[in-house]
Specification:
The protein has eight helices and six strands. It is α/β, with parallel strands linked by helices. The protein has a single domain, classed as Alpha/Beta hydrolase fold, catalytic domain (Rossmann fold, 3-Layer(aba) Sandwich). A six-stranded parallel β-sheet has the order 2-1-3-4-5-6, with helices on both faces.
Length: about 200
């Protein structure tokens, strides 16, 4: 099995060059060939994300370019942080040949309206891994459990206890439980590795 191509999309508020994205791209590099990209609004220095069709189109274009560079025979994994993970799900509904989805902090509820954004998850057929902090206000775990029960796609969940939307745990919580952020991050990476291997997209 060749190493997968992992296309890693940023969230709404920070580019692919952010410290968080760089750190996770480096970790994911142990599992495959990682490619990152910036959506058009981020390239242009705008704060507000592009409209939904433009985001999906840019994500698709980045995938096409990455496959040209790395070859079409690699399994394709769409990974993303928050908004990037959600747009990856929309692309996986449109495109065939996506082996797996890895979502760092899936934004199940809209940050502005609180509306439940579950339709794309119900349309999915691609295996999906949710990596969620237990204190993430954009993805209450009870809401995610209800959606997963209605999904057709195979889904798995890794919860970071005390984690926020970026899967980071407060220093006080870490100290009280004898954990470290590095330990939590390595547990996340192990969950991703096991998930990819289970769905034929592992190294």
């Amino acid at each position: 099995m060749s190493m997968p191509l992992i296309l890693f999309a940023h969230g709404a508020g920070a580019p692919s060059a952010s410290a968080w994205m760089r750190a996770w791209a480096r970790r994911l590099g142990a599992l495959g060939a990682v490619e990152t990209f910036d959506y058009p609004y981020m390239q242009a220095g705008r704060k507000s994300p592009d409209r939904h069709p433009a985001l999906v189109a840019a994500h698709g274009a980045a995938l096409d370019q990455a496959r040209t560079r790395h070859g079409a025979d690699r399994p394709v994994v769409l990974a993303g942080k928050s908004m990037g993970s959600r747009i990856g799900c929309h692309l996986a509904v449109e495109r065939s040949g996506i082996a797996a989805l890895v979502c760092f902090g899936y934004p199940l509820r809209s940050g502005s309206t609180g509306a439940l954004r579950d339709q794309v998850l119900l349309e999915l057929r691609t295996p999906i891994l949710f990596l969620q902090g237990s204190r993430d206000p954009l993805c209450p775990l009870e809401d995610l459990a209800a959606v997963r029960a209605r999904m057709t796609a195979p889904s798995e969940l890794h919860v970071v206890q005390g984690g926020n939307h970026s899967l980071e745990v407060g220093k006080r919580d870490l100290a009280a439980s004898g954990r470290t952020q590095e330990g939590e991050d390595q547990a996340i990476l192990a969950a991703v590795a096991a998930f990819l291997k289970a769905h034929g997209a592992g190294p």
